[in-house]
Write a structure and sequence with these properties.
The structure holds 2 protein chains of 2 kinds. By secondary structure, chain A is mainly alpha-helical. Chain A is built from 6 helices and no strands. Chain A has one domain. By secondary structure, chain B is mainly α. Chain B has one domain. Helix content of chain B is about 70%, strand content about 0%. Classes of the chains: A mainly alpha, B mainly alpha.
Chain lengths: ~130, ~140
Amino acid sequence: MIPLASGALFGAGACLSGMVRPSKVLGFLDFGGAWDASLLVVMACALAIHVLAWRLVPAQRHPGPPSTVVDARLLGGAALFGIGWGLAGYCPGPALVSIVSGARGSLVFVAAMIAGMWLAGHAPSGKPDTGEG
Amino acid sequence: MHDFTPVHAAVGGALIALSLAVMLIATGRIAGLSGIVGGIVRPRAGDWIWRAWFLAGALAVGAVFELAAPLTYDADARVPLPVVAIAGLLVGLGTRLGNGCTSGHGLCGMSRLSKRSIVATMTFFALAVATATITGALCAG
């Protein structure tokens, strides 16, 4: 089961990297206090592997060239996501993993995130998912 | 530097990248996390079982960490719970409108120099840093 194994790898990575801890994430995003560069290492390491991974995708499975349309929906969505990420310190994957801790913050966050995802499907000029992620 | 954990960060980053790389190479899917969860919240026929398996794997390993090393997780949020709820709503709405999050745009898209992903990642990083820095100053004050 490829998705199960892949999900397990993600869970382990989110836990080990510290991305499941909002305090760790905010230590990186908050430039005002004692800054923690750990997430820069997470990102750099992951990006380096992904540059290689793209070269290994078989041609018949390649999702094709990415769309180049930069529109208000992309910019507005990314802006809202950034504000939410900076407020609480959770991005979607690690937030979801963290619900197993039962911490109230993570449960409230994920419940609200699911509501937000549901609402996004009702936004005006909704386009089908381009499958970017 | 405060709480810098480069080895854990490098290993964790590598595992996150491997997770998405396995999906990409084996199935041709750009398996960003907001996309995986979004596809379960608004399911399409025949396209949700792999998402459920992925999340089951992630949650199972997360639970092992909770049992073996509970300090993996934070007990409390930095901001009050109503603010956490607003943050969650913004993240859910924003990642679906913008079609991706840290994994889909930040890793999968940026690593193939997708213009949309680079613009999206710069935008959400800039706003996250600004928001976290302002909120941090308010919390400390």
